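Notes from hallway chat w/ T.B., transcribed later so I don't forget. T.B. wanted the structure written out for a chain they're using in a teaching module, and asked if we could keep both sequence and structure tokens in one place. Agreed to drop them here.
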Amino acid sequence: MSQMQRERIVEQAAKMFAEQGIKSIRMDDIASSLGVSKRTLYEMFEDKEELLYLSIRYMQSRRMAKVEAKLRENTESLAYLFDCIAMMMDNRELHRRISQNLHKFYPATFERVRKEAEEQSGKILYSLIEHYIDCGLITPTVDVRLSVTILYYTTNTLITSADNMSLPDGVTLQDALSYTIINFFRGIATLKGVQQIDEYIAKCIENNKR
């Protein structure tokens, strides 16, 4: 089969895993949905776990492609930084569900995906923080690597542990993430950066009133 057909299988598998769960989908189901034989799938992919891994990479690459396209705007507004981070965490509920199931049923693939996501997200966050240091919005003495590590693990823990958290009434996971991210950057921002953050918060509050 051609590379195009292989990509079509990965794309379809990704859609099915996302919509129906990684445990419930069998190779038979994927083959049937594509109108091919299960044998054909096994000629191209070693097993379901390999196809699952490639499907998750496909989902991640689509999300990161949007972030990288936005990075080209190269703006000097911290609102832009928050938008980029929000895009990196797009489909948080889906990400959380897939991560939980991967960890339970496919621990080796979970660890592989986790490390790759951490590396890719880390590079983007690192470049963003360096950019805002150059813009005079983040303190130049900040430890960029440590900042990236703390931010990544804090937000990732919030997402993956949402089921075990007791948030105040009326507070959503999105609210908790926004609060954490905004106040994290407030802590490493310059006075100019803090002013932008305050303006961003005021704008969000105004939009929520509408």
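Follow-up for T.B.: Residues 1-61 form a domain with the Arc Repressor Mutant, subunit A fold (CATH 1.10.10.60). Might be a good example for the class.
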